[in-house]
Each structure stands twice: as C-alpha cells, then as structure tokens.
Amino acid sequence: TGRYARWSAEHGSVTFNLAGFQMAWAGMNEAGLAISTMSLTDTDYPPPDERPPLIAPFWVQYQLDTCATVEEVMANDARVRAMGSEDHYLVCDRSGACVAVEFLDGKTVFHSGQAMPVAALANKPYLASVQAWQAGLLEDRARFRIAADRVVNFQPSDATSAVAYAFETLQQASGQAIHGVPTQWSIVFDTANLRVHWRTARNAQLRYVDFARLDFACGTPVEMLDVHTPLPGDVSDRLDLYSFRD
C-alpha cells in the first residue's frame, strides 16, 4: 500500500500540457501564480517519506490548484513531495515575488528574496548560474546571462511593451538564436493583468488568453486548444471542450 495525494482545486488555471489533462508543464492560475519548468540534469529528489508523492507534472498542477503566493508553494513542501523528472521551476506570483524550486542532493532547495538576486533560470542549478553570472564567467550566448542581464535592465512601463520585452528576451535566449536545440514554444505570463501570451515554432503569431473572459467556476467543463492553432490575438473564446480524442 502507499500514500496518495488528493486535493480539490482552490484556483482555476490555464496550463500548457505535453501529455494530457493535469499533466502541466507550465501555467498560471486565476490568483496570478505562474510556474515554468526547465530541465535540470542535476536533479536528485528527496527519498520516499510520509508525504504523498506526485510526479512532476502533477506537482506543478497541485501548486496551481492550491497556491496564490510563492510562500504557499514553499509551504506545500511539507505536504507533498515531487518525483520523476529532471526539472526545476521558476515560480512567481501577482505581487512580483519569485522563487526557484530545485531538488538537489536529496533535498528541496528554494531560492527567493535576498537569496534570489535576479529572477531568471536556465538549465543549471540556480546558485551556480547566478554566481557565474555575478563573476562575469558566463559567455555571451549563455541563456542565464541573456535572461539575467535583461531582467536587470528592464524598465517597467505599460503592459504591452513589457510583454514585448519579455518575448524579445525569450527570442534572444532561444535555441535558434544561440545555435542550440530549436525552441518550440515561448510563453509570457502577465501576472498583473492575468493574461497568458504565447507563440510557437509552427505558428509565430502572438496569441493570448484573457482570464477576464474565462469561467473558472467549480463544475465548469475543462476546455482546451491546440498550442499551434493558426490563430492570432485573443483566443479566449476559441477554446473547445476537452476531449480524449483530440
């Protein structure tokens, strides 16, 4: 016998899923909490204990379902444990607070507040990346350097220019730009205005979902949209009922 996590969603969310329903790779909930996943081969999960285990995509969905702040995400480490994938996570909330969540040497590691001098994440442990960046040891095409430099240089203005700046940052750090593995999709979470924007390698048109036009009430049917759908602009009303056939 084993222990299993059961929970009810306190917050509705928009997620990006690689495998199926609730297998979230990234997403944002109606409270403005956003999570992104990045590969980390150094991942070493805590050993089994009394906490119910969740494979990584369910762990992401659990945070979106139950949390409104990064503090609540960190507190959830006492309730469930992640397992199964070599990943780490950048989590930000509507206040602008962020935390990097990693699993290293059999422990859960959080970097937030003063321990997170820049809200950026790539495919190396956060501490190693930020120390190399601060020491000027990262090459020009290093993803962490590109992202961190642009985060530091960002000058807040209106939402439209902020979203454009974020996409420009993702383009500069894309596999196509740094001659790495081609980037397949880029996502920008506007936590202040509760909009999710994205573009993909197969459809470069910018699309977005506006949370104000979605119904997150309990019992509302799950809706979906092919991430590559050839549509521009606001696609909030183009979502269809979730189907196992699609």
Structure commentary:
The chain is of the alpha+beta class and 246 residues long. Helix content is 22%, strand content 28%. It contains six helices and 14 strands. The relative contact order is 0.12. The model has no long low-confidence stretch (mean pLDDT 94).
* Helix-and-strand structural type: alpha+beta
Outline type:
globular
Q: Please state the CA-atom Rg, rounded to the nearest Å.
A: 18 Å
Helix content: 10-25%
What pattern of helices and strands is seen along the backbone? EEEEHHEEEEHHHHEEEEEE
Number of H- or I-type helical stretches: 6
The strand line-up of the biggest sheet is: 1-2-3-6-7-8
Report the uncertain regions: none
| Spatial separation of the terminal alpha carbons | 34 Å
Percent in strands: 25-35%
Major sheet attributes: 6 strands, antiparallel
- The tally of strands reads 14
Overall mean pLDDT score? 94
List the helices and strands and how they pair.
Blueprint lengths: L12 E5 L6 E6 L4 E6 L13 E3 H11 L3 H6 L5 E3 L3 E6 L5 E7 L2 E6 L13 H9 L8 H11 L5 H14 L2 H4 L6 E6 L4 E6 L2 E8 L12 E2 L8 E2 L5 E2 L5
Quick recap of the structure?
The protein is α+β, with helices and mostly antiparallel strands and 246 residues long.
Key words describing this protein structure:
six-stranded antiparallel sheet, alpha+beta, about 250 residues, 14 strands, four-stranded mixed sheet, globular
